[in-house]
Design a protein that fits this description.
The chain is α/β, with parallel strands linked by helices. About 35% of the residues lie in helices and about 20% in strands. The protein contains eight helices and eight strands; from the N terminus they run βαβαβαβαββαβαβαα. The protein binds D-xylitol-5-phosphate and zinc ion. Zinc ion (ZN) binds next to strand 2.
């Protein structure tokens, strides 16, 4: 399987959300990356339930929902009802991560755990077999258009080695500052899912930009 591409709608034109969703439908992208922020876990507030409902009406590919909210276990069934297919919760936001992961799977979604740039991948040693994907933040979460943190590549290599040592199929996703320079570096370090916001939606030809990422 080639590289999975998950365009981040945070960089879409919210006045033309249907148009941008249809562009992603037509493209070679695999998923829709949807960023939810609460202004507490991260210093920004993005989109909430009514907007996700609108996205789900137009999106013809799975929703890869990234929760940047405190205590995400409170909202697992809500996001299932909204149509999330993959639910990413932050390691740093969960008091009882194992329970939250089980809740997500029982609700019928694929559980993923997300790490902030400062959190070492080694904390995943005992939870890795229970998740379908790990999302490595390559910027501090909260905003699009930030610069890729190079140490993410070291983390990706260490996590890839851990996945192989345990003989798992865990996907490794990266989010933040992905562009024509950092995307190939990430793939080379063992990443198989690329999130890209401003690089895709800010490009002249987003369909072509997505096609280029798919080739990596
Ligand atoms: C940031 C979000 C990202 C964001 C990435 O907190 O999680 O998904 O949209 O944006 P770019 O690709 O522009 O760095
Ligand atoms: Zn994200």
């Amino acid at each position: 399987m080639g590289t999975i591409v998950s365009p981040s709608l945070l960089a879409a034109d919210f006045g033309n959300l249907q148009r941008d969703c249809e562009m992603v439908n037509r493209s070679e992208a695999d998923w829709f990356h949807v960023d939810v922020m609460d202004g507490v876990f991260v210093p920004n507030i993005s989109i909430g339930m009514p907007v996700i409902k609108a996205i789900k009406r137009h999106a013809q590919k799975p929703l890869d929902v990234h929760l940047m909210i405190v205590d995400p276990s409170r909202y697992v069934s809500t996001f299932r009802d909204l149509g999330a297919d993959i639910l990413n919760v932050h390691y740093e936001a969960c008091q009882h991560l194992h329970r939250t992961i089980e809740q997500i799977r029982q609700a019928g979604m694929k559980p993923a755990v997300t790490l902030n740039p400062h959190t070492p991948v080694e904390v995943l040693e005992d939870i890795l077999p229970d998740v379908d994907m790990v999302l490595l933040m390559s910027v501090n979460p909260g905003f699009g258009g930030q610069k890729f943190i190079p140490n993410t590549l070291n983390k990706a290599r260490r996590l890839r080695a851990m996945v192989e040592r345990k003989k798992l199929n865990t996907l490794i996703e990266v989010d933040g500052g992905i562009d024509q320079t950092t995307a190939p570096q990430a793939v080379e370090a063992g990443i198989n899912v690329l999130v890209a916001g401003s690089y895709v939606f800010g490009s002249k030809n987003p369909i072509e930009t997505i096609a280029q990422l798919k080739k990596l």
